[in-house]
Design a protein that fits this description.
The complex is a heterodimer of chains A (about 575) and B (about 550).
Chain A: H1 7-17, H2 23-43, E1 47-48, E2 51-54, E3 57-60, E4 63-64, H3 66-85, H4 92-110, H5 114-133, H6 138-169, H7 182-194, H8 202-207, H9 213-234, H10 240-258, H11 262-283, H12 286-317, H13 333-346, H14 353-367, H15 371-397, H16 411-429, H17 432-437, H18 449-473, H19 479-493, H20 496-531, H21 543-563
Antiparallel strand pairs in A: 1-4, 2-3
Helix pairs in contact in A: 1-2, 1-4, 2-3, 3-4, 3-9, 3-12, 3-16, 4-5, 4-9, 5-6, 5-9, 6-7, 7-9, 9-11, 9-12, 10-11, 10-15, 11-12, 11-14, 11-15, 12-13, 12-14, 12-16, 13-15, 13-16, 14-15, 14-16, 15-18
Chain B: H1 17-35, H2 38-63, E1 69-72, E2 83-86, H3 88-116, H4 121-140, H5 144-163, H6 171-201, H7 206-216, H8 220-237, H9 245-252, H10 255-280, H11 286-313, H12 317-338, H13 341-372, H14 383-386, H15 388-402, H16 408-422, H17 426-452, H18 466-484, H19 487-501
Antiparallel strand pairs in B: 1-2
Helix pairs in contact in B: 1-2, 1-4, 2-3, 2-4, 3-4, 3-10, 3-13, 3-18, 3-19, 4-5, 4-10, 5-6, 5-10, 6-8, 6-9, 8-10, 9-10, 9-12, 10-12, 10-13, 11-12, 11-17, 12-13, 12-16, 12-17, 13-15, 13-16, 13-18, 13-19, 15-17, 15-18, 16-17, 16-18
The chains are: A mainly alpha (about 575), B mainly alpha (about 550).
């Protein structure tokens, strides 16, 4: 039965009937569809399972192989968790958008040709923007617009690349490509935008923190991981990706450290984690690709968990700003525990999911002699621990007491977080089932003495550094200044150098932006002068002038005719 | 299926279908006036349209795989008598025109009563049918002078139809007047061109002209005739510097009239251009290639961009759509200028797809006019939310106008880009994409107004009556349908394009009619941009 229709259609059909159903039934539909799709994906045999002919092209809507299967599975799982987390949402638009979004993402990873990929690629863009708009604020509206423009732009590039590619090779199949021609560069940049490559990344930090509490959880799972999948499928072993990835792991750290909005911090660390996956894709060995797939799997879970816990805080307190929060562990202990589990996972503590997956990418880097990259990744791991592992739980739940005493998160949120946290730990403790799912058959042991010790050393020294800075930098008066002092650590001590650098970068950035902005404004004004309703091009011409234009064109046509 | 015998002694009704296609509406029109009963005017017009539509379906079915039907009026064999000739190209157009009429008339029932008042209805529908007849006639006939006659029938009635808008806005009168002046000049140029052709070939039958031009090669008269015909038809097509009549005519005409005109009349003119460029003349003539490259491509590009920019800045939804039409015509002309099968297919299929797309959009605007009396952005704030079905149809139409995959508009743009690539004109493909981005801007602006702005007051609470709603829904579904299932549209269009590029197009020898277009392989133009490589029966340039 599973071969009868592409899995994504299941989501689309659900999205179609959902608005007609009463609220209670909807919630079950929202949970049931991802479960069903997960089961279908699990049971599908490998191969090209579903073709449709679209004027002259054979489109492959269902390419099932280990690589696409693991992504389709984790997407289904993430959709289930996200929808469970959003159980309380009664907004039809968000529910439909979430279904369409997930359906498009799953459709995209199962797409076997570039045209199908393009359809779903744009589908994810259009569906997901409603999760941002659903917040309903003016800011969210404009953020959504920017997000949409960039995402559609990525799709247009993909389309252009696909057309040129088809013209060059005569095939639309989505297989591994070698960077070099116009087509592959267009496709590469299109993937790069979605994957938030450095300098193409701004949409991510701009939009994710702007979405609704539940929207962010959903958003964080799909778009970028779809891009990682596309890169792994199309550009595995492309060396430039190793360096792009290394930069990606590095630069968001500094921003994350000085950022106050916790959801924004998470958005930066999301970017950093993507960097690991991109490095894996760039190395392109079997081990590295396994690492990428595994890390994407684990990453979706713990990142969702972190966004959920911060979201729960936002949901209860109305803010996600580090400076306004603190001391919430007293009344939201469970959320705090889940957050710490997420933090431990992202920091790759042994026995948590991040450890068993990230170490694969690191090992692959060493194995292929990318020592500098390896060092960068190691440094980045420490950075992750710093800003996600310590900063998020610390500011939200400990630090100085904000005086807020919110209720514990609602039950369905706790349930969603609980399941996710359980999965994070389960993968960390017993990774064999995950490894079995990976695209290549590689025996890999993450729990070797070296790995564990290296990682623990790294973590403990980072923690030590944090504590030492806390202790030396502060001490005087009361709790209130803890915030200030830790603020001092974050904003002054460590990142002073980087701060200077960052300010230069942002100055250049902003002056370029202002310049472009002005240019755009001027251009639009000039366009408006000639094309606006009062402009020459749009005004009604006198009849005589119309006739004159006819005479001129006739003259031109005759001239061309006789000149030939 | 090529029932190409000269139908001198036709026996059954089925053999008379080509002439019935035109005669039914032509006779119904005076009938409406003679009967003079207001309540019967609409039903008669509708019945005539339905019959015409059924006939067009039958005709399309007969020729969709290639071949043609030749019908001699009054039994006078061509080339002396007037010949009606149906093949895949014009059958698709007949299907579009009569289909839009059938779908548009129920819409007109409410809309026209509201916009021009009940007392003018009898004459309105008589006039409407004349216009309808004219367009069908232009498309179906195979006789050059007959084209002119039908063109005038449709044009004159169109002027009257546009002027009906004067009941709501007096500017409709100047719009109709300008259109009249321009249209008349266009028709005059066209008839001058035909006169020149007659001068040098001594015949008026298109197939016959084609044969004789092929025999004797080109001369100055024939070239001048070409220029006059292109410019004359360019006026009706609204090729860019000649488009100035269009925005006002579309804006101030009653909504139902705009729906019909936008979807059909420029398309019929594009068809005539195609017929003359490929069936009568042959693209192996250097002067024709020059005209395409030096006149069509630049002005088509100008249309795609200038008109889109104007559309972006418009403050009136209806007028915006009018400018967008001009831009879309740019795509059609660009397809012709590509001079390959994919290009012509894109042109023909875009005529069809754009016809249904624009029809649904203008219908949506008409529904707004019905509710709030105006189509200015300032007065239609938030109406998409208040009129959900109308809004949804406009969204679908808008997506199709942009060319979003899954909608009809995408198909034609995709074909056009392929055509450009085949010729190695990748920069044209890039420009097509860029101008589509402009379409995103102007469609977005409209959607922004009707969805994201708060409604002005609470007076509008529901969609228009079903007679207006159902046509809109049908067309919106068609926009999606023809974006996914392209058997009819692409099927007919590529058959048509191939036979057009064969040059002969069944217009040639009447002795071996049965085996004509379908069997002849498509010219191998894909391999090289120079159209001279086409296996042309016609001689190339003498100079």
């Amino acid at each position: 039965m599973a071969e009868l229709f592409p899995v994504s259609f299941l989501f689309f059909a659900a999205a179609l009937v959902l608005p007609l159903l009463p609220m209670m039934v909807r919630s079950f539909l929202l949970l049931g569809v991802p479960v069903l799709s997960g089961m279908i994906v699990w049971s599908l045999p490998e191969g090209m399972l579903w073709q449709v002919s679209f004027f002259g092209f054979e489109l492959e809507l269902m390419r099932v192989d280990p690589l696409s299967r693991i992504f389709a599975l984790i997407f289904s799982l993430a959709a289930f968790l996200g929808n469970l987390y959003a159980w309380h949402v009664r907004d039809t638009v968000q529910q439909v958008a979430a279904l369409l979004y997930v359906g498009s993402a799953i459709g995209a990873v199962l797409a076997g040709d570039l045209l199908t990929l393009f359809f779903y690629w744009e589908g994810t863009a259009i569906a997901s923007v409603f999760l941002i708009w659903a917040r309903g604020t003016e800011g969210a509206y404009w953020t959504g617009m920017r997000y949409l423009i960039i995402q559609i732009g990525s799709g247009v590039l993909l389309m252009a690349g696909a057309v040129v590619w088809y013209h060059e090779t005569g095939s639309l199949a989505f297989e591994r490509m070698t960077l070099g021609s116009l087509a592959t560069w267009l496709i590469f940049i299109s993937f790069g935008i979605k994957c938030a490559f450095p300098l193409l990344h701004n949409w991510l930090q701009d939009s994710y923190p702007a979405a609704t509490v539940t929207g962010t959880v959903i958003l964080s799972a799909f778009t970028t991981k779809l891009a990682v999948y596309a890169l792994a499928r199309g550009f595995a072993g492309t060396e430039i990706l190793v360096y792009i990835g290394a930069v990606m792991t590095l630069f968001p750290i500094f921003y994350a450290v000085i950022e106050n909005d916790l959801r924004r911090v998470l958005a930066y660390s999301l970017n950093n984690q993507l960097g690991f996956m991109v490095v894996g894709v760039g190395i392109g060995t079997e081990l590295a690709l396994n690492g990428t797939a595994a890390h994407a799997f684990a990453h979706i879970l713990y990142k969702a968990l972190l966004f959920m816990s911060v979201g729960a805080v936002l949901f209860r307190t109305g803010t996600a700003k580090g400076s306004e929060l603190g001391g919430l562990y007293k009344t939201m202990p469970l959320t705090m525990i889940f957050c710490v589990v997420g933090a431990a996972s992202i920091s790759a503590f042994p026995l948590f999911s991040g450890f068993v997956t990230k170490s694969m990418i690191l090992s692959a880097a060493v194995k292929e002699h990318y020592y500098i990259v390896w060092a960068i990744l190691l440094f980045a791991s420490a950075g992750v621990f710093h800003h996600s592992g310590i900063k998020i739980p610390y500011f939200a739940f400990f630090a100085h007491d904000s005086g807020m005493r919110p209720k514990e998160a609602p039950t369905h949120m706790l349930l969603a977080m609980g399941i996710t946290a359980f999965l994070c730990i389960a993968i960390g403790v017993y990774p064999a089932p995950l490894y079995a799912l990976l695209p290549y058959d590689v025996t890999y042991h993450s729990y070797t003495t070296t790995h564990v010790i290296t990682q623990l050393q790294l973590l403990f020294f980072s923690a030590l550094a944090f504590t030492v800075l806390m202790r030396t930098g502060i001490y005087p008066p009361e709790l209130k200044s803890v915030n200030l002092d830790s603020d001092w650590i974050y904003r002054k001590a460590a990142p002073r150098v980087i701060g200077v650098l960052a300010s230069y970068v942002s100055q250049i950035n902003s002056s370029v932006l202002t310049f472009l902005n002005n240019r755009v404004k001027n251009t639009i004004n000039r366009l408006y002068r000639s094309y606006g309703p009062e402009g020459r091009m749009a005004s009604t011409w006198p009849t005589g002038a119309m006739v004159l234009s006819i005479a001129l064109l006739l003259g031109a046509t005759l001239l061309v005719n006789f000149a030939g | 299926m090529a029932t190409a015998e000269v139908a001198v002694a036709s026996k059954t009704l089925a053999d008379h279908l080509p002439v019935l296609q035109v005669v039914v509406p032509l006779v119904t029109s005076p009938l409406i006036v003679v009967i003079g009963v207001r309540s019967l005017a609409w039903p008669l017009a509708f019945i005539a349209s339905v019959i015409a539509f059924i006939i067009s379906c039958l005709l399309l079915y007969q020729v969709i795989d290639g071949g043609f039907i030749s019908y001699a009026i009054g039994g006078w064999a061509p080339p002396l008598g007037i010949e009606y000739r149906v093949d895949a190209t014009n059958a698709l157009l007949l299907f579009l025109i009569s289909g839009i009429s059938v779908i548009g008339l129920p819409y007109a029932l409410t809309s026209i009563r509201f916009e021009i008042g009940a007392k003018n209805e009898t004459l309105f529908y008589a006039c409407y049918l004349l216009c309808f007849t004219g367009l069908l006639g232009v498309v179906i006939t195979g006789d050059a002078f007959n084209i002119f006659v039908f063109l005038e029938i449709s044009s004159l009635s169109t002027y009257v139809l546009v002027a009906q808008g004067a009941i709501r806005d007096k500017r409709a009168l100047t719009a109709a007047y300008d259109y009249l002046i321009m249209g008349t000049i266009g028709a005059t140029f066209f008839v001058i061109g035909i006169g020149m052709l007659y001068m040098s070939t001594g015949t008026l039958n298109l197939a016959d002209i084609a044969d004789r031009i092929a025999d004797q090669g080109s001369n100055r008269t024939i070239r001048a005739a070409f220029a006059f015909i292109v410019v004359g038809m360019g006026l009706k097509v609204a090729l860019v510097p000649l488009h100035l009549w269009l925005p006002n005519a579309y804006t101030f005409a009653p909504s139902a009239v705009t729906v019909f005109l936008a979807a059909t009349s420029t398309k019929a003119a594009v068809y005539v251009l195609l017929r003359f460029m490929f069936s009568v003349y042959h693209p192996s003539f250097i002067f024709e290639v020059n005209t395409l490259y030096f006149i069509f491509i630049p002005f088509a590009l100008l249309a795609m961009f200038a008109a889109s920019f104007v559309a972006i800045f418009q403050s009136d939804f209806k007028r915006m759509l009018a400018y967008s039409s001009i831009a879309q015509i740019g795509y059609m002309l660009m397809g012709i200028a590509m001079l390959n099968v994919a290009g012509l297919t894109s042109t023909i299929v875009h005529m069809f797809n754009h016809g249904i797309t624009k029809a649904v959009l203008f219908m949506g605007v008409g529904a707004f006019v019905l509710k709030v009396g105006s189509s200015f952005y300032d007065s239609i704030h938030g109406l998409g939310r208040r009129m959900p079905i109308t809004g949804a149809c406009i969204v679908i139409g808008g997506l199709s106008l942009i060319g979003v995959p899954g909608t009809a508009g995408f198909i034609s743009k995709w074909m056009l880009m392929q055509a450009a690539f085949e010729n190695g004109f990748w920069w044209i493909a890039v420009l097509v994409v860029l101008s589509s981005l402009l379409a995103v801007a102007y469609v977005w602006r409209a959607l922004d107004v009707i969805y994201l702005k708060a409604p002005l007051d609470d007076s509008v609470t529901r969609d228009p009556p079903l007679t207006m709603l159902i046509p809109m829904i049908i067309l919106a579904v068609a926009c999606v349908w023809f974006g996914i299932d392209t058997t009819i549209s692409i099927g007919a269009a590529s058959t048509a394009a191939e036979s057009l590029l064969n040059g002969s197009f069944g217009m040639m020898p009447t002795e071996i009619p049965a085996e004509m277009p379908a069997e002849v392989p498509a010219p191998t133009i894909e391999s090289a941009p120079e159209p001279e490589t086409a296996p042309a029966p016609a001689p190339t340039e003498s100079q």
